[in-house]
Amino acid sequence: MTEVHIIGAGIHPFGRHKDKSGLDQGIHAIRAALADAGLGWNDMQFAFGGSDAAGNADAVLPRLGLTGMQFINVKNGCATGGSALLSGYWAIKSGEFDLGIAIGFDKHPPGAFNPDPEEWGLPRWYGETGLMLTTQFFGMKIQRYMGLHGITPRTLALVAEKAFANGARTDHAWRREPIDADAVLASTMVSDPLTKFMFCSPAEGGVALILASAKKARELGRAGVKVLGATVRTRVDGSFEVFSPMLDLARGPSPTEIASRAAYEMAGVGPGDIDIAQIQDTESGAEIMHMAENGFCGHGEQERLVREGVTTPAGRLPINTDGGCLACGEPIGASGLRQIFENVMQLRGQAGTRQVPKQPRIGYSQVYGAPGISAVCILGGA
Amino acid sequence: MTQSTPVAADLFELAPDGVRLVGGRGKSDGRFVFPLPTGALADEFDRVLLGRAGRLWSWTVQRFRPKSPPYAGPPETEPFRAFAVGYVELPGELIVESRLVVDDFAALRLGLPMEAVAAPFVTGPDGSAILTYAFRPVEAAQ
What we know:
Largest interface: A-B, 39 and 40 residues
Number of strands of chain B: 10
Radius of gyration of chain A: 20 Å
Distance between the termini of chain A: 16 Å
Number of helices of chain A: 13
Strand content of chain A: 15-25%
Number of domains of chain A: 1
Largest sheet of chain B: 5 strands, mixed, barrel
Strand order of the largest sheet of chain B: 6-7-8-10-9
Order of helices and strands of chain B: EEEEEEEEEE
Shape of chain A: globular
CATH topology of chain A: Peroxisomal Thiolase, Chain A, domain 1
Oligomer: heterodimer
Strand content of chain B: over 45%
Shape of chain B: globular
Low-confidence stretches of chain B: none
Number of domains of chain B: 1
Distance between the termini of chain B: 22 Å
Protein backbone atom coordinates (compact mmCIF):
# COMPACT_ATOMS: atom_id res chain seq x y z
CA MET A 1 0.00 0.00 0.00
CA THR A 2 1.29 3.46 -0.90
CA GLU A 3 2.35 5.49 2.09
CA VAL A 4 1.55 9.20 2.23
CA HIS A 5 4.05 11.78 3.46
CA ILE A 6 3.72 15.48 4.23
CA ILE A 7 6.79 17.04 2.63
CA GLY A 8 5.95 20.72 2.91
CA ALA A 9 3.98 22.93 5.29
CA GLY A 10 3.12 26.62 5.22
CA ILE A 11 1.01 28.92 7.34
CA HIS A 12 -0.26 32.49 7.32
CA PRO A 13 -0.38 33.78 10.91
CA PHE A 14 -3.81 33.48 12.54
CA GLY A 15 -5.64 36.45 14.04
CA ARG A 16 -7.10 39.62 12.55
CA HIS A 17 -5.65 41.08 9.35
CA LYS A 18 -7.80 44.04 8.44
CA ASP A 19 -6.53 44.76 4.95
CA LYS A 20 -5.87 41.21 3.83
CA SER A 21 -8.52 38.91 2.31
CA GLY A 22 -8.89 35.28 3.34
CA LEU A 23 -7.83 34.35 -0.19
CA ASP A 24 -4.58 36.31 0.13
CA GLN A 25 -3.85 34.53 3.41
CA GLY A 26 -4.43 31.19 1.66
CA ILE A 27 -2.05 32.14 -1.16
CA HIS A 28 0.59 33.20 1.39
CA ALA A 29 0.31 29.76 3.06
CA ILE A 30 0.52 27.91 -0.29
CA ARG A 31 3.68 29.80 -1.31
CA ALA A 32 5.22 29.08 2.09
CA ALA A 33 4.42 25.35 1.79
CA LEU A 34 5.84 25.16 -1.76
CA ALA A 35 9.02 26.94 -0.64
CA ASP A 36 9.30 24.60 2.34
CA ALA A 37 9.12 21.60 -0.02
CA GLY A 38 11.38 23.19 -2.63
CA LEU A 39 8.64 22.79 -5.26
CA GLY A 40 6.63 25.01 -7.59
CA TRP A 41 2.88 25.35 -8.20
CA ASN A 42 3.42 23.62 -11.58
CA ASP A 43 4.51 20.48 -9.72
CA MET A 44 1.13 20.07 -8.02
CA GLN A 45 -0.99 17.35 -9.64
CA PHE A 46 -4.06 18.01 -7.49
CA ALA A 47 -5.44 20.33 -4.82
CA PHE A 48 -8.20 19.96 -2.25
CA GLY A 49 -9.06 23.34 -0.76
CA GLY A 50 -11.60 24.65 1.69
CA SER A 51 -12.92 27.89 3.11
CA ASP A 52 -16.13 28.32 5.10
CA ALA A 53 -16.65 32.08 4.85
CA ALA A 54 -13.92 33.47 2.55
CA GLY A 55 -15.10 32.34 -0.86
CA ASN A 56 -14.19 29.44 -3.12
CA ALA A 57 -10.77 27.94 -2.46
CA ASP A 58 -10.15 27.44 -6.19
CA ALA A 59 -10.07 31.24 -6.58
CA VAL A 60 -6.34 30.83 -5.84
CA LEU A 61 -5.91 29.32 -9.34
CA PRO A 62 -5.74 32.52 -11.45
CA ARG A 63 -3.27 33.95 -8.94
CA LEU A 64 -0.95 30.96 -8.75
CA GLY A 65 -1.26 29.63 -12.28
CA LEU A 66 -3.96 27.99 -14.43
CA THR A 67 -2.13 24.71 -14.79
CA GLY A 68 -5.15 22.54 -15.57
CA MET A 69 -4.69 20.58 -12.36
CA GLN A 70 -7.49 18.72 -10.58
CA PHE A 71 -8.78 21.24 -8.01
CA ILE A 72 -11.69 20.26 -5.76
CA ASN A 73 -13.37 22.68 -3.33
CA VAL A 74 -14.15 21.15 0.05
CA LYS A 75 -16.87 22.42 2.37
CA ASN A 76 -17.51 20.27 5.41
CA GLY A 77 -18.34 22.43 8.42
CA CYS A 78 -15.70 22.58 11.12
CA ALA A 79 -13.89 19.60 9.58
CA THR A 80 -13.30 21.43 6.27
CA GLY A 81 -9.49 21.47 6.66
CA GLY A 82 -9.39 17.90 7.96
CA SER A 83 -11.52 16.82 5.01
CA ALA A 84 -9.16 18.50 2.51
CA LEU A 85 -6.23 16.65 4.05
CA LEU A 86 -8.11 13.35 4.07
CA SER A 87 -9.11 13.78 0.41
CA GLY A 88 -5.48 14.37 -0.55
CA TYR A 89 -4.44 11.39 1.53
CA TRP A 90 -6.79 9.07 -0.36
CA ALA A 91 -5.85 10.59 -3.72
CA ILE A 92 -2.27 9.46 -3.17
CA LYS A 93 -3.04 6.26 -1.31
CA SER A 94 -5.20 5.11 -4.23
CA GLY A 95 -2.15 5.33 -6.48
CA GLU A 96 -3.86 7.81 -8.80
CA PHE A 97 -1.56 10.75 -7.93
CA ASP A 98 1.79 11.09 -6.21
CA LEU A 99 2.09 14.81 -5.41
CA GLY A 100 -0.49 17.42 -4.40
CA ILE A 101 -1.64 19.98 -1.88
CA ALA A 102 -4.28 20.45 0.83
CA ILE A 103 -5.34 24.06 1.43
CA GLY A 104 -7.50 25.78 4.04
CA PHE A 105 -8.11 29.47 4.71
CA ASP A 106 -10.82 31.61 6.23
CA LYS A 107 -11.92 35.02 7.43
CA HIS A 108 -14.95 35.39 9.73
CA PRO A 109 -16.68 38.53 11.01
CA PRO A 110 -15.92 39.24 14.72
CA GLY A 111 -18.19 38.03 17.53
CA ALA A 112 -20.25 34.90 18.06
CA PHE A 113 -21.58 33.13 14.96
CA ASN A 114 -25.10 34.33 14.04
CA PRO A 115 -27.12 31.32 12.90
CA ASP A 116 -30.47 31.26 11.10
CA PRO A 117 -32.86 28.63 12.56
CA GLU A 118 -34.32 27.75 9.15
CA GLU A 119 -30.89 26.96 7.70
CA TRP A 120 -30.54 24.37 10.43
CA GLY A 121 -34.04 22.95 9.90
CA LEU A 122 -35.17 24.34 13.25
CA PRO A 123 -38.38 26.21 14.10
CA ARG A 124 -38.24 30.01 14.42
CA TRP A 125 -39.20 30.05 18.10
CA TYR A 126 -35.96 28.21 18.92
CA GLY A 127 -33.94 31.26 17.87
CA GLU A 128 -36.51 33.83 19.00
CA THR A 129 -36.56 32.62 22.61
CA GLY A 130 -32.76 32.75 22.91
CA LEU A 131 -31.84 29.06 22.75
CA MET A 132 -29.79 29.13 19.54
CA LEU A 133 -26.29 29.97 20.75
CA THR A 134 -23.23 27.76 20.34
CA THR A 135 -21.85 29.19 23.61
CA GLN A 136 -24.80 27.71 25.54
CA PHE A 137 -24.08 24.26 24.12
CA PHE A 138 -20.43 24.44 25.19
CA GLY A 139 -21.43 25.66 28.65
CA MET A 140 -23.99 22.89 29.12
CA LYS A 141 -21.77 20.08 27.81
CA ILE A 142 -18.92 20.87 30.23
CA GLN A 143 -21.32 21.76 33.08
CA ARG A 144 -22.74 18.24 33.05
CA TYR A 145 -19.30 16.70 32.57
CA MET A 146 -17.93 18.59 35.58
CA GLY A 147 -20.86 17.44 37.71
CA LEU A 148 -20.46 13.80 36.71
CA HIS A 149 -16.65 13.60 36.74
CA GLY A 150 -15.47 16.08 39.37
CA ILE A 151 -13.76 18.65 37.17
CA THR A 152 -13.39 22.08 38.81
CA PRO A 153 -13.47 25.60 37.30
CA ARG A 154 -9.79 26.05 38.24
CA THR A 155 -8.84 23.17 35.93
CA LEU A 156 -10.72 24.89 33.08
CA ALA A 157 -8.71 28.04 33.86
CA LEU A 158 -5.42 26.11 33.84
CA VAL A 159 -6.19 24.88 30.32
CA ALA A 160 -6.57 28.49 29.16
CA GLU A 161 -3.45 29.59 31.06
CA LYS A 162 -1.44 26.90 29.24
CA ALA A 163 -2.92 27.94 25.87
CA PHE A 164 -1.87 31.57 26.31
CA ALA A 165 1.57 30.59 27.62
CA ASN A 166 2.09 28.43 24.50
CA GLY A 167 0.63 31.11 22.24
CA ALA A 168 3.15 33.62 23.59
CA ARG A 169 5.94 31.46 22.09
CA THR A 170 4.21 30.83 18.74
CA ASP A 171 4.81 33.03 15.68
CA HIS A 172 1.53 32.07 14.02
CA ALA A 173 -0.62 32.57 17.16
CA TRP A 174 -3.05 35.48 17.58
CA ARG A 175 -3.01 35.90 21.39
CA ARG A 176 0.63 36.41 22.34
CA GLU A 177 0.22 37.62 25.94
CA PRO A 178 0.27 35.15 28.84
CA ILE A 179 -2.89 35.24 31.00
CA ASP A 180 -2.76 33.40 34.34
CA ALA A 181 -5.47 31.14 35.73
CA ASP A 182 -6.68 33.72 38.27
CA ALA A 183 -7.22 36.29 35.50
CA VAL A 184 -9.01 33.66 33.40
CA LEU A 185 -11.37 32.89 36.30
CA ALA A 186 -11.91 36.59 37.02
CA SER A 187 -12.78 37.49 33.40
CA THR A 188 -16.44 38.07 32.44
CA MET A 189 -18.69 35.03 32.77
CA VAL A 190 -20.05 34.28 29.28
CA SER A 191 -21.96 31.03 29.58
CA ASP A 192 -21.55 29.36 32.98
CA PRO A 193 -19.13 27.83 33.87
CA LEU A 194 -17.13 29.31 30.96
CA THR A 195 -15.59 32.79 31.18
CA LYS A 196 -14.47 35.07 28.35
CA PHE A 197 -10.84 33.87 28.38
CA MET A 198 -11.95 30.22 28.27
CA PHE A 199 -13.48 30.74 24.79
CA CYS A 200 -11.75 30.99 21.43
CA SER A 201 -12.91 33.56 18.86
CA PRO A 202 -13.63 33.34 15.15
CA ALA A 203 -10.51 34.53 13.34
CA GLU A 204 -8.55 34.52 10.07
CA GLY A 205 -5.65 32.54 8.71
CA GLY A 206 -4.46 30.04 6.13
CA VAL A 207 -2.54 26.75 6.02
CA ALA A 208 -1.26 24.55 3.19
CA LEU A 209 0.34 21.09 3.30
CA ILE A 210 2.16 19.32 0.44
CA LEU A 211 1.42 15.60 0.21
CA ALA A 212 3.53 13.04 -1.62
CA SER A 213 3.72 9.29 -2.04
CA ALA A 214 6.63 7.59 -0.25
CA LYS A 215 8.27 6.97 -3.63
CA LYS A 216 7.93 10.58 -4.74
CA ALA A 217 9.18 11.82 -1.38
CA ARG A 218 12.29 9.65 -1.78
CA GLU A 219 12.86 10.89 -5.34
CA LEU A 220 12.67 14.47 -4.10
CA GLY A 221 14.95 13.67 -1.18
CA ARG A 222 12.35 14.97 1.29
CA ALA A 223 11.07 12.31 3.66
CA GLY A 224 8.99 14.74 5.72
CA VAL A 225 6.57 13.04 8.09
CA LYS A 226 4.35 10.06 7.40
CA VAL A 227 0.54 10.04 7.68
CA LEU A 228 -0.17 6.95 9.77
CA GLY A 229 -3.93 7.38 9.90
CA ALA A 230 -6.57 9.94 8.93
CA THR A 231 -10.33 9.78 9.50
CA VAL A 232 -13.48 11.89 9.39
CA ARG A 233 -16.61 10.73 11.23
CA THR A 234 -20.07 12.23 11.83
CA ARG A 235 -22.52 12.05 14.72
CA VAL A 236 -24.63 9.00 15.62
CA ASP A 237 -27.88 8.71 17.61
CA GLY A 238 -27.35 9.77 21.20
CA SER A 239 -24.45 12.16 20.55
CA PHE A 240 -24.82 15.57 22.27
CA GLU A 241 -24.44 18.25 19.61
CA VAL A 242 -25.06 21.96 19.18
CA PHE A 243 -28.61 23.26 18.45
CA SER A 244 -30.55 20.27 19.81
CA PRO A 245 -34.05 21.13 21.13
CA MET A 246 -34.12 17.56 22.47
CA LEU A 247 -31.85 14.61 23.18
CA ASP A 248 -32.72 10.92 23.29
CA LEU A 249 -32.61 9.27 26.72
CA ALA A 250 -30.28 6.60 25.32
CA ARG A 251 -26.89 8.33 25.06
CA GLY A 252 -24.27 7.31 22.50
CA PRO A 253 -20.63 7.91 21.60
CA SER A 254 -19.39 11.24 20.22
CA PRO A 255 -18.14 11.57 16.63
CA THR A 256 -14.69 12.19 18.15
CA GLU A 257 -14.69 8.82 19.92
CA ILE A 258 -15.60 7.08 16.68
CA ALA A 259 -13.08 8.99 14.53
CA SER A 260 -10.38 8.45 17.15
CA ARG A 261 -10.84 4.69 17.41
CA ALA A 262 -10.82 4.34 13.63
CA ALA A 263 -7.64 6.42 13.30
CA TYR A 264 -5.79 4.40 15.96
CA GLU A 265 -6.78 1.19 14.18
CA MET A 266 -5.62 2.54 10.82
CA ALA A 267 -2.30 3.72 12.27
CA GLY A 268 -1.70 0.57 14.30
CA VAL A 269 -0.95 2.61 17.41
CA GLY A 270 -2.79 3.36 20.64
CA PRO A 271 -3.24 6.44 22.83
CA GLY A 272 -0.20 5.43 24.91
CA ASP A 273 2.04 5.74 21.83
CA ILE A 274 1.18 9.40 21.23
CA ASP A 275 3.96 11.87 22.12
CA ILE A 276 2.19 15.14 21.31
CA ALA A 277 -1.45 16.08 20.61
CA GLN A 278 -3.36 19.00 19.09
CA ILE A 279 -7.02 18.59 20.06
CA GLN A 280 -10.10 20.76 19.56
CA ASP A 281 -10.28 23.48 22.22
CA THR A 282 -13.15 25.70 21.11
CA GLU A 283 -13.26 26.42 24.84
CA SER A 284 -11.35 25.10 27.83
CA GLY A 285 -13.94 22.43 28.58
CA ALA A 286 -13.61 20.96 25.09
CA GLU A 287 -9.91 20.25 25.63
CA ILE A 288 -10.72 18.51 28.93
CA MET A 289 -13.46 16.34 27.40
CA HIS A 290 -11.48 15.62 24.25
CA MET A 291 -8.56 14.29 26.33
CA ALA A 292 -10.86 11.44 27.34
CA GLU A 293 -12.75 11.14 24.04
CA ASN A 294 -9.43 10.64 22.22
CA GLY A 295 -8.41 7.94 24.68
CA PHE A 296 -5.64 9.80 26.54
CA CYS A 297 -7.25 9.30 29.97
CA GLY A 298 -10.38 8.11 31.73
CA HIS A 299 -13.26 10.50 32.48
CA GLY A 300 -12.34 12.61 35.50
CA GLU A 301 -8.60 11.92 35.42
CA GLN A 302 -8.07 15.27 33.69
CA GLU A 303 -8.43 17.08 37.02
CA ARG A 304 -5.20 15.49 38.29
CA LEU A 305 -3.37 15.38 34.94
CA VAL A 306 -3.86 19.08 34.22
CA ARG A 307 -2.84 20.12 37.74
CA GLU A 308 0.30 17.99 37.50
CA GLY A 309 1.24 19.71 34.24
CA VAL A 310 1.13 16.52 32.16
CA THR A 311 -0.26 18.47 29.17
CA THR A 312 2.28 21.34 29.30
CA PRO A 313 5.17 21.36 26.79
CA ALA A 314 7.51 19.67 29.32
CA GLY A 315 4.86 17.15 30.42
CA ARG A 316 4.38 13.53 29.38
CA LEU A 317 1.73 14.43 26.76
CA PRO A 318 2.05 18.03 25.57
CA ILE A 319 -1.34 19.24 24.26
CA ASN A 320 -2.03 22.21 21.97
CA THR A 321 1.59 23.29 21.87
CA ASP A 322 0.92 26.34 19.65
CA GLY A 323 -1.84 27.59 21.95
CA GLY A 324 -4.63 25.79 20.07
CA CYS A 325 -7.84 27.57 19.09
CA LEU A 326 -7.77 29.51 22.37
CA ALA A 327 -4.60 31.37 21.38
CA CYS A 328 -4.85 31.11 17.58
CA GLY A 329 -8.57 31.73 17.10
CA GLU A 330 -10.71 29.61 14.81
CA PRO A 331 -10.81 30.25 11.07
CA ILE A 332 -12.96 27.22 10.27
CA GLY A 333 -11.39 26.28 6.92
CA ALA A 334 -7.84 26.46 8.27
CA SER A 335 -8.14 25.33 11.88
CA GLY A 336 -7.74 21.57 11.40
CA LEU A 337 -4.78 22.06 9.07
CA ARG A 338 -3.11 24.35 11.64
CA GLN A 339 -3.08 21.43 14.09
CA ILE A 340 -1.37 19.24 11.50
CA PHE A 341 1.07 22.03 10.61
CA GLU A 342 2.03 22.25 14.29
CA ASN A 343 2.59 18.49 14.54
CA VAL A 344 4.73 18.54 11.37
CA MET A 345 6.93 21.29 12.86
CA GLN A 346 7.22 19.51 16.21
CA LEU A 347 8.00 16.10 14.62
CA ARG A 348 10.67 17.74 12.44
CA GLY A 349 12.11 19.42 15.53
CA GLN A 350 11.64 22.81 13.85
CA ALA A 351 9.12 24.44 16.19
CA GLY A 352 11.65 27.00 17.41
CA THR A 353 11.17 28.42 20.90
CA ARG A 354 8.02 26.32 21.40
CA GLN A 355 9.69 22.99 20.45
CA VAL A 356 8.79 20.48 23.17
CA PRO A 357 11.87 19.36 25.14
CA LYS A 358 11.49 15.64 24.43
CA GLN A 359 11.59 15.10 20.63
CA PRO A 360 8.17 13.62 19.69
CA ARG A 361 7.92 10.69 17.26
CA ILE A 362 4.14 10.35 16.91
CA GLY A 363 1.78 13.32 16.72
CA TYR A 364 -2.03 13.29 17.01
CA SER A 365 -4.57 15.89 15.91
CA GLN A 366 -8.35 16.11 16.24
CA VAL A 367 -10.69 18.82 15.03
CA TYR A 368 -14.37 18.81 16.04
CA GLY A 369 -17.36 21.02 15.37
CA ALA A 370 -20.80 21.64 14.00
CA PRO A 371 -22.99 19.90 13.09
CA GLY A 372 -21.33 16.94 14.87
CA ILE A 373 -18.23 16.05 12.89
CA SER A 374 -14.72 15.09 13.91
CA ALA A 375 -11.49 14.58 11.95
CA VAL A 376 -8.40 12.85 13.34
CA CYS A 377 -4.91 12.63 11.84
CA ILE A 378 -1.95 10.68 13.25
CA LEU A 379 1.55 11.49 11.98
CA GLY A 380 4.82 9.66 12.47
CA GLY A 381 8.33 10.99 12.02
CA ALA A 382 9.76 9.52 8.80
CA MET B 1 -55.70 40.56 33.14
CA THR B 2 -53.17 41.09 30.33
CA GLN B 3 -53.60 39.08 27.16
CA SER B 4 -50.92 36.52 26.38
CA THR B 5 -49.94 34.72 23.18
CA PRO B 6 -47.79 31.59 22.73
CA VAL B 7 -44.60 32.12 20.69
CA ALA B 8 -45.61 29.28 18.34
CA ALA B 9 -48.69 27.17 17.65
CA ASP B 10 -48.95 23.72 19.23
CA LEU B 11 -45.70 24.07 21.22
CA PHE B 12 -47.25 23.56 24.67
CA GLU B 13 -50.71 23.55 26.21
CA LEU B 14 -52.32 24.22 29.53
CA ALA B 15 -53.57 20.83 30.70
CA PRO B 16 -55.66 20.31 33.86
CA ASP B 17 -52.51 19.38 35.84
CA GLY B 18 -50.33 22.23 34.49
CA VAL B 19 -48.29 23.06 31.42
CA ARG B 20 -47.48 20.17 29.07
CA LEU B 21 -45.12 20.30 26.10
CA VAL B 22 -46.51 19.01 22.81
CA GLY B 23 -44.26 16.28 21.44
CA GLY B 24 -44.46 13.40 19.03
CA ARG B 25 -44.21 9.64 19.40
CA GLY B 26 -42.90 7.62 16.45
CA LYS B 27 -45.62 5.39 15.03
CA SER B 28 -43.13 2.69 14.08
CA ASP B 29 -40.58 2.81 16.92
CA GLY B 30 -42.23 4.64 19.82
CA ARG B 31 -39.40 7.18 19.97
CA PHE B 32 -40.34 10.47 21.67
CA VAL B 33 -39.46 13.73 19.93
CA PHE B 34 -39.87 17.45 20.62
CA PRO B 35 -41.16 19.66 19.12
CA LEU B 36 -43.92 17.80 17.26
CA PRO B 37 -42.66 17.40 13.67
CA THR B 38 -44.54 19.23 10.94
CA GLY B 39 -44.32 18.93 7.16
CA ALA B 40 -43.10 15.74 5.54
CA LEU B 41 -42.32 14.02 8.85
CA ALA B 42 -45.68 14.78 10.52
CA ASP B 43 -47.33 11.54 9.36
CA GLU B 44 -44.71 9.42 11.12
CA PHE B 45 -45.59 10.68 14.62
CA ASP B 46 -48.58 10.68 16.95
CA ARG B 47 -49.16 13.92 18.86
CA VAL B 48 -48.54 13.40 22.60
CA LEU B 49 -48.42 15.62 25.67
CA LEU B 50 -45.06 15.10 27.38
CA GLY B 51 -44.69 14.62 31.13
CA ARG B 52 -44.71 17.87 33.08
CA ALA B 53 -41.95 17.05 35.55
CA GLY B 54 -38.37 15.84 35.33
CA ARG B 55 -34.84 16.40 36.54
CA LEU B 56 -32.22 18.92 35.49
CA TRP B 57 -29.70 17.25 33.12
CA SER B 58 -27.48 20.29 32.56
CA TRP B 59 -27.68 24.09 32.53
CA THR B 60 -25.92 27.34 31.78
CA VAL B 61 -26.72 31.04 32.05
CA GLN B 62 -27.11 33.32 29.04
CA ARG B 63 -25.11 36.34 30.24
CA PHE B 64 -25.17 38.53 27.11
CA ARG B 65 -27.97 39.57 24.78
CA PRO B 66 -28.18 37.08 21.90
CA LYS B 67 -27.95 38.57 18.41
CA SER B 68 -31.16 39.64 16.63
CA PRO B 69 -32.26 38.04 14.44
CA PRO B 70 -33.00 35.38 15.45
CA TYR B 71 -33.41 36.53 19.11
CA ALA B 72 -36.74 38.27 19.66
CA GLY B 73 -36.53 39.05 23.40
CA PRO B 74 -36.78 42.55 24.92
CA PRO B 75 -35.22 45.24 22.67
CA GLU B 76 -31.59 46.33 22.93
CA THR B 77 -32.73 49.65 24.41
CA GLU B 78 -33.71 47.81 27.61
CA PRO B 79 -31.05 46.51 30.03
CA PHE B 80 -30.41 42.83 29.31
CA ARG B 81 -31.44 40.44 32.07
CA ALA B 82 -29.46 37.19 32.13
CA PHE B 83 -31.57 34.02 31.92
CA ALA B 84 -30.82 30.37 32.60
CA VAL B 85 -31.23 27.61 30.02
CA GLY B 86 -30.86 23.90 30.49
CA TYR B 87 -31.86 20.39 29.58
CA VAL B 88 -34.51 18.57 31.63
CA GLU B 89 -34.78 14.78 31.56
CA LEU B 90 -38.42 13.68 31.36
CA PRO B 91 -38.46 10.09 32.64
CA GLY B 92 -39.23 7.45 30.01
CA GLU B 93 -39.54 10.11 27.27
CA LEU B 94 -36.64 12.41 26.34
CA ILE B 95 -34.32 15.20 27.44
CA VAL B 96 -35.70 18.60 26.45
CA GLU B 97 -33.90 21.94 26.10
CA SER B 98 -35.64 24.84 27.79
CA ARG B 99 -35.37 28.24 29.38
CA LEU B 100 -35.30 27.90 33.17
CA VAL B 101 -37.22 30.12 35.58
CA VAL B 102 -35.07 30.44 38.69
CA ASP B 103 -34.43 33.23 41.21
CA ASP B 104 -30.92 32.16 42.15
CA PHE B 105 -28.67 30.68 39.43
CA ALA B 106 -26.50 29.20 42.19
CA ALA B 107 -29.39 26.89 43.17
CA LEU B 108 -29.11 24.97 39.88
CA ARG B 109 -27.51 21.50 40.12
CA LEU B 110 -27.66 18.20 38.23
CA GLY B 111 -30.73 16.18 39.19
CA LEU B 112 -32.75 19.10 40.54
CA PRO B 113 -36.51 18.29 40.28
CA MET B 114 -38.11 20.60 37.69
CA GLU B 115 -41.60 21.20 36.32
CA ALA B 116 -42.95 22.81 33.16
CA VAL B 117 -44.46 26.29 33.22
CA ALA B 118 -45.48 28.90 30.65
CA ALA B 119 -43.31 31.98 30.97
CA PRO B 120 -43.39 35.39 29.26
CA PHE B 121 -40.13 36.24 27.48
CA VAL B 122 -41.11 39.47 25.72
CA THR B 123 -44.04 41.87 25.33
CA GLY B 124 -45.65 41.83 21.88
CA PRO B 125 -46.43 44.97 19.81
CA ASP B 126 -50.03 45.00 21.10
CA GLY B 127 -48.91 44.92 24.74
CA SER B 128 -49.66 41.22 25.24
CA ALA B 129 -47.09 38.90 26.79
CA ILE B 130 -45.48 36.39 24.41
CA LEU B 131 -45.26 33.07 26.22
CA THR B 132 -42.84 30.23 25.79
CA TYR B 133 -42.46 27.01 27.76
CA ALA B 134 -39.92 26.90 30.56
CA PHE B 135 -39.02 24.72 33.54
CA ARG B 136 -38.66 25.84 37.15
CA PRO B 137 -37.45 24.07 40.28
CA VAL B 138 -40.31 22.18 41.91
CA GLU B 139 -39.66 23.84 45.30
CA ALA B 140 -40.51 27.19 43.70
CA ALA B 141 -44.04 25.97 43.04
CA GLN B 142 -45.28 26.33 46.61
